[in-house]
Design goal:
Number of strands: 8
Shape: elongated
Number of helices: 12
Mean pLDDT: 76
Strand order of the largest sheet: 4-1-3-2-6-7-5-8
Order of helices and strands: HHEHEEHHEEHEEHHEHHHH
Length: 377
């Protein structure tokens, strides 16, 4: 209170002597407060991310029980006769049963090391041996093993199980996919994900997959790491008609998907709605940036420039550009992307009139902005 009251006369006196600076002082204080809030937000975000990261940078779940050490369950399936694809499909379904159990940290399917071998591996990392045993005794897991037992009896396949405390991953060309599932659609997503894993496991160059289910910190986020032996093999799978068909089928259960490949000039602002799909065209990006950046720059020229008129122009412009980028990144662009989401990320169900209606809306908003700011300077 003493600090505020001691400064009050100074501001009042300043306003009396320099009336033109009253608004500038107010805006400068408002901008200073905004910068403080943004910095606090970024610091809190960094701290929250740090809290759910382990010491080596790998993502760990806050759901992890502490009653015992993690356990790794390994299934090795050797195909002696019959269709390999059927057995891969069984492995994929078994993996998704484990992932759905909420006891799995991560899971991966690893194909044979070379064409002369027939052994496939399913590696599932559980939070504890108790959760592993609970999954092994679950009705869904036992049903899958009962389903495959006749083939084992006929010696079409051979299955071996083991438990370890650690197991490495296979190095190769990879792409990380982060998927946000719509609330209440987890079971349907697991079914779709099983179809994805079964399909890509049959593709040439496939080297394995790493699947991490949601954690307490990220309750709706699924992380998948697909591995292929070459960029060409990975691109062939991503551009395949089979994968495109599966993506269309999953649209009903998936809210959004981000992946490692960058296809736009502003990847931080525009996450891809579908894994493997291209982001919005650059011309759409430019229109939305202009929508938010134009009023910011006009307001800076009117209210901020007089405050820093005594500074070197290089420093003044740097401060102005910093504020413009910050406000565009954290305020105007997120709002614009949300408002024009259907236009930026059209699907097969998006009406054709959305494109023309969105462009017309942008033109009207531009005109309103110009009209409102016409006499500002």
């Amino acid at each position: 209170m003493f600090f505020r009251s001691s400064l009050a006369p100074s501001y009042a006196a300043l306003a009396d002597r320099f009336p033109a600076l009253t608004n500038s002082i107010y805006v400068a204080r408002l901008i200073n407060r905004l910068i403080t809030v943004l910095v606090q937000f970024m610091v809190e975000k960094a701290i929250s991310i740090k809290r759910w990261q382990s010491g080596d940078g790998s993502i760990m779940s806050a759901q992890a029980p502490v009653q015992s050490s993690p356990a790794v369950h390994i299934i090795k399936l050797s195909v002696n006769a019959g269709e390999v694809g059927e057995h891969i499909d069984w492995l994929a379904r078994l993996m998704m049963v484990g992932v759905e159990s909420s006891g799995v940290v991560s899971a991966e399917i690893i194909p044979p090391a070379n064409s002369g071998q027939t052994e496939w591996s399913l590696v599932q990392r559980f939070y504890s041996a108790e959760l592993l045993e609970s999954w092994r005794q679950s009705e869904a897991c036992r049903a899958l093993f009962e389903e495959i037992q006749p083939r084992v009896t006929k010696q079409d396949i051979a299955i071996g199980e083991s438990v370890d405390t650690s197991y490495g991953t296979v190095g190769s060309v990879s792409v990380a996919i982060v998927t946000k599932v719509k609330p209440g659609q987890e079971a349907a997503y697991c079914k779709c994900e099983g179809q994805f894993q079964s399909a890509q496991a049959r593709r040439p160059g496939y080297k394995g997959v790493y699947v991490q289910p949601p954690t307490k910190s990220t309750p709706e986020i699924w992380t998948t790491l697909n591995r292929f032996d070459s960029p060409a093999a990975l691109d062939q799978w991503f551009s395949s008609d089979e994968r495109k068909k599966l993506l269309e089928q999953s649209e009903q259960v998936v809210h959004s998907t981000e992946y490692q490949k960058v296809t736009t000039s502003f990847p931080g602002w525009f996450p891809s709605k579908n894994a493997g799909a291209k982001g919005p065209p650059n011309w759409k990006t430019a229109l939305l940036i202009l929508l938010g950046l134009y009023p910011i720059v006009m307001l800076e020229i009117r209210f901020l420039n007089p405050v820093f008129s005594g500074l070197n122009p290089a420093l003044t412009n740097f401060i102005g550009n910093t504020l413009s980028v910050a406000l565009t990144t954290w305020i105007t662009m997120p709002l614009a992307i949300k408002a024009f989401s259907s236009w930026l990320f059209p699907t097969t169900d998006t009406p054709k009139w959305i494109n023309s209606a969105s462009i017309a809306s942008l033109v009207c908003i531009y005109a309103i902005e110009i009209a409102l700011l016409w006499k500002l300077l």
